Amino acid sequence: MPYLVLDRLTKRFGPWVAVDNMSLTVEKGELVSLLGPSGCGKTTTLQMIAGFLDPSAGRVTLDGADLLAKKPNERGLGIVFQSYALFPHMTAAENVAFGLEMRGIPRADRDRMVRDALQLVGLGAFGDRYPRRMSGGQQQRVALARAMVIKPSLLLLDEPLSNLDAKMREEMQIELRRIQRSVGTTMILVTHDQAEAMALSDRVVIMNKGRVEQVAAPQDAYDNPASAFVANFLGRTNLLQGTVRRDGAGRRIDVAGTAWPVAAEVPDGPGLLTVRPEKVRFVDGAGVPGLVRARVFQGTQWLFEIRTEAGDLTVIRQHDGQTLPAENEPVMLGWRAEDMRVMAGEA
Amino acid sequence: MTAVDAHKSLAKSLIDSPDTAADSAPPPRPERRPLAPYLLSLPALALFAVLLLVPLVMTGLLSLNSFGFYTGIQDVWQLGNYIDIVTDDYFHEIFLRTFRIAVVVTLLCAVLGAPEAYILRRMRSPWRGLCLLIVLGPLLISVVSRTLGWALLFGSTGIINTALMAVGLIATPIEFMYTETGVIIALTHVLVPFMVLSVWASLQRLDPQVENAALSLGAKPFTVLRRVVLPQVVPGILSGSIIVFALAASAFATPAIIGGRRLKVAATLAYDEFLNTLNWPLGAAIAMLLLLANIVIIVGCNRLVERRYKQVFE
Which superfamily does CATH assign the domain made up of B2-14+89-313 to? Predict the structure, then answer.
């Protein structure tokens, strides 16, 4: 039985629909990311689960109970805010203790639980510090400890890592994953960072303009994007215009003079071929002809910008000693048929 | 909103210690001291010196002179005026009354103004501006017409008493005129805006998510206000209190009209000494003592609260 159920959740602000008929089920212990560009409705969804916004329509149930019937301070959810929202006039320990205090937990137990929670996030020695005297990463950990210590039935994370620098973010991703594994809390993570979503989640929910585009495991969504939007949003991708037609051998798509077999049910006419940059190879024989416009060395890999008849392609090749074409060199491009996806293009 | 901005900076400069001002000054260059900053602040310094420092020093000197009914002001230096004030119960009573009124007005302003600012901030767009204008209203009206308006309301046949008696709540008129109650009500009315603006400024710095965070941790709305919002707006309440206290303790027009001759405060007392008794040195000594007491009380309270809420003041 699913743990958290969002049933046709909708939020309208006047004529504008922020979240449109969103349905989602989350299993206990799962970490699900809501991923999308800003304004896609992911934070609005989180705010409705938290109770800070009232939905215009739809239902939310948690463990079988109607969540919308409860006030935000009765829902028992842990929330980590983008700004951390720590209480600046309280020490880290007092911040963490606040939720326990509200639950009337006796002093001695409270102190022990606060200590354990700060230990869990690696801040055992920082209990007496005020938030102002802590780095962004430390504040972030206090916010996490404060939300976790009340043993929430559900932990909501609103862009928790977006205010950290790249290195710290990576560290916190690993930390968050470790804590999630060891404590087993069900988590909903809102983020616009696809790398973060893929690194942390069991499943990702890709949203666009208030609608769910795809719900899948990160790798599934990456390999089998349900739409051009998903393909573009999850990592880099190449979009090539082509024409879908059927002949004796089956369905095919013509792109820049080459024909590729199409497995999916796509109507005849204009089609869109997507293929990931790292899946495109330089081939000797037949392929899509192109010209290297630019190449950039990125340490572990080379990035190529290649102009073809069907549009510009990005190609990523590992820096592993193989000879690679130089700039302004004509090349032939190819990829395995199973590495590409074909969608109906707009007519 | 320029009035608000000006006030914000005023409130900030009142609570910030001088070292923040030193921080913002450019680092001194050892080789050549730039002249421009000094030249640019010269007009302001001249104004300050001529209009504040010189009269203040002159008043201070005047307070040391002596006065006789037949001899006039004597050019001697002595502390007789101060000794007279310190040893006379008549002056004690007036000074005590002055500060009692100022304290009560400050407390009332805090109790009324802080929630008012909080509610105003949560209002929506057209209403917020409108309500803010109403709150600031008293400041836009001349002190004399505002206070005479209160006199019309307060009189024994005034609107308040007539209405209360018509309803049957009271049998005899309540004494507002020439009482502390009347002065306190009228002063609170005009000084509340300073508190509202000051608390408003500190509410602006509050992370709106902090209240949600406290809610999500299980705090009831009132607990959120008491434990999370209030401690963070203490600096605003404090700077508002300083302004209100200083203005209430040195208020002249309102106590003069509502309190009249019967209910003197330090400011009206000094005025009377100057213009009725013509004992200028005694009036100057009263003014100096009022200034001194004001400074001592304000600085003392400021220190106390700053130490108590150390973390929010950084």
Answer: MetI-like (1.10.3720.10)
